[in-house]
Design brief:
- It comes from Nyssomyia neivai.
- One of its GO terms (molecular function) is U4 snRNA binding.
- By secondary structure, this protein is α+β, with helices and mostly antiparallel strands.
- Helix content is about 30%, strand content about 30%.
- The strands form 7 sheets. The chain has a 4-stranded antiparallel β-sheet with strand order 1-2-3-4, with no helix packed on it. A 4-stranded antiparallel β-sheet has the order 5-6-7-8, with no helix packed on it. Strands 9-10-11-12 form a 4-stranded antiparallel β-sheet.
């Protein structure tokens, strides 16, 4: 037997069919997209992205940035910059840039200025200067005095005030010339006698004025009556020197801040305006003798507080200080507002008229005072010097001195002729609420303060003559009678 015949073939028990490659490819092509994705995941294949990185565009952007940087450096080299380091720092400051960086020398500073001018423009400094000038001009316009356009009656009122004040000013100057002829010894003896009288002052009467603080007081022209206002809303009329209550004036619904007497009104004039009062709700009421209710109301200030008011020496006009940063002048004969004057940055708290009737002074919470010429409407003097709010102003009878009482505990004396303060009196240990000159000659003035006292000061030497103490709380107002016999304080 051959070797081939010795090989024995065994038949497998199970036949395995592997299939062909062509069949597998056909099955894969005809399968669904979902099966295809599943198979690719099983086979570990990686998906290709549709996002492409454009290398040419990126290179072109880099080239553009590089060219721009070269162009900027070329432009910077062409810009002329001062070699003075002080001038370079000044230019940097005008561009709102730091004038010096850490470790920076003059050369580096000049290069930095060149680069800034290259990026901002060569005229950047000029533009900054122009913008700053425009801003200052706008601020100046905002801070400048604003004049309202008044009615036709304002011109008539100004002419009337001019005709009224000029003869009185002439008479005042004539009186001043006559005083110059008085010997100095006579003047000195009069002052010594007056000072002795003031230093010997003692309380004459103490009266409970109201259940709430008594905010203001005012004498009438003949020194026989006193008008007071209170935070209870009630105004009261008292006799002098007995301090007896004569009449109550009811009508205000809130705190009354100021009252004023009209000159030369007889007590038997039942329907004539004799007094005025202003309240915190902005209402101003006019009162007559014998009537507990007001005969007229002025509501032009509502809802702003009316803190102080004063009658013009002629009695025809009424001035009111309002917390809307303005003061107003009312014609009582025409029964209308003839002047609405702004000028203060904050509320106007007080005002006073010169005895001639030609000038008015106002003081505000902005710590400034202003002097207004009623004949022309112009602000003729700006009282700048106090550190805090002004709560009291008054004119001296000589016509050219003004006293202002401030929250900074001082009283300043101003001279209209010099247009500046001539003395500062460190009066009290707390804010000053009011100040008043002697009515006839102005030889002394009185200040009231929240330190519970009032003080009398000599007009020429500004020395303290007398401290009026006795109140248990803040002194809110003070007034001197026209005959110089009485001084009243309210608290």
């Amino acid at each position: 037997m051959s070797d081939d015949e010795d090989i024995v073939f065994t038949r497998p028990t199970k036949i395995i069919h592997y299939g062909s490659l062509q069949t597998n490819l056909l099955d894969m092509q005809t399968s669904s997209s979902d099966d295809k994705e599943q198979k690719t995941k099983e086979l570990g294949q990686i998906h290709t992205s549709n996002e492409y990185f454009d290398l040419e565009n990126e290179i072109s952007k880099d080239k553009a940035a590089l060219l721009e940087e070269f162009e900027k450096r070329k432009k910077a080299r062409q810009i002329n910059v001062s070699t003075d380091d002080v001038e370079v720092k000044k230019n940097l400051r005008q561009l709102n840039e730091p004038i010096c960086l850490f470790g920076e020398g003059p050369a580096e500073r000049r290069n930095r200025l060149r680069e800034l001018l290259a990026s901002l423009g060569e005229n950047a400094i000029g533009q900054k200067i122009a913008e700053e000038e425009e801003r200052k001009q706008l601020q100046k316009e905002q801070e400048s005095t604003w004049y309202h356009e008044g009615p036709d009656s304002l011109r008539i009122a100004r002419i009337w005030i001019a005709h009224y004040s000029l003869p009185r000013a002439k008479q005042r100057l004539q009186t001043a010339k006559e005083l110059l002829s008085v010997p100095s010894a006579t003047k000195a003896s009069r002052m010594v006698e007056l000072q002795k009288k003031l230093q010997s002052l003692a309380p004459l009467c103490s009266q409970v004025g109201d259940t709430r603080p008594v905010s203001h007081c005012c004498f009438n022209g003949d020194s026989t009556l006193l008008l007071t206002s209170s935070w209870s809303g009630v105004c009261k009329l008292w006799t002098i020197p007995d301090c007896e209550l004569v009449q109550n004036f009811r009508g205000h619904a809130c705190q009354v801040g100021g009252v004023a007497f009209r000159n030369n009104v007889p007590r038997d004039a039942m329907n004539e305006v004799a007094m005025a009062s202003g309240a915190a709700d902005g209402t101003v009421k006019l009162w007559a003798f014998g009537n507990e209710e007001s005969i007229a109301d002025i509501t032009g200030h509502v809802p702003h507080r009316v803190s102080r008011l004063a009658f013009h020496p002629s009695g025809r006009f009424l001035g009111t200080a309002c917390y809307d940063a303005s003061w107003r002048l009312w014609d009582l004969e025409q029964k209308q507002e003839v002047l609405h004057q702004e000028g203060h940055a904050k509320a106007v708290h007080c005002l006073a008229f010169q005895d001639d009737g030609s000038v008015c002074v106002t003081g505000g919470l902005d710590a400034f005072g202003r002097v207004w010429d009623l004949r022309t409407g112009r602000c003729i003097m700006f009282l700048e010097g106090h550190l805090k709010s002004i709560f009291g102003v008054d004119f001296s009878p000589n016509g050219f001195q003004i006293a202002t009482a401030s929250e900074d505990n001082t009283c300043k004396i101003w001279d209209l002729r010099r247009r500046q303060p001539i003395y500062t009196i460190p009066c009290h240990t707390n804010l000053l609420s009011d100040v008043k000159y002697q009515k006839n000659s102005g030889d002394f003035l009185v200040t009231a303060s929240y330190d519970n006292t009032a003080k009398i000061w000599s007009n020429r030497t500004w020395q303290p003559l007398k401290t009026l103490s006795g109140h248990d709380s803040k002194v809110m107002s003070v007034d001197i009678s026209p005959n110089s016999q009485y001084i009243v304080t309210t608290s």
